[in-house]
Amino acid sequence: MPASAVGTAGFGFGLAYPVLLNKMAEVANSEFRTLAVMLMTAFANIGQFISPLITNGIQSAFHIGSIQGVFFSMMMMIVVVFMITACINLKGIQIVYANRKSAKCSSRSGQRTG
Length: 114
Description:
Number of helices: 3
Distance between the termini: 75 Å
Largest sheet: none
Number of domains: 2
Number of strands: 0
């Protein structure tokens, strides 16, 4: 079962990677295009190298018996980080919306009605 999951994830990454490189090349300025693609490729390879070290470290630190437990704990950490990030972004959106709303109200109060 884990082998099929890893194979599916690898197949998906293999399909997505050229698309991501192409989008990176489209978004980057022409003078920094080579640097942007190089950095993306470098960090993808560094991530592939570090991933087993991180999973083995988590497995050793928390005395998890199987790799499934490691992936589950990593999934839970990602969910927590996502929730924290979403809350921070929502709070920022609310602040921006409140500032815009108060700016509109103050500009209306400064106008005279005829």
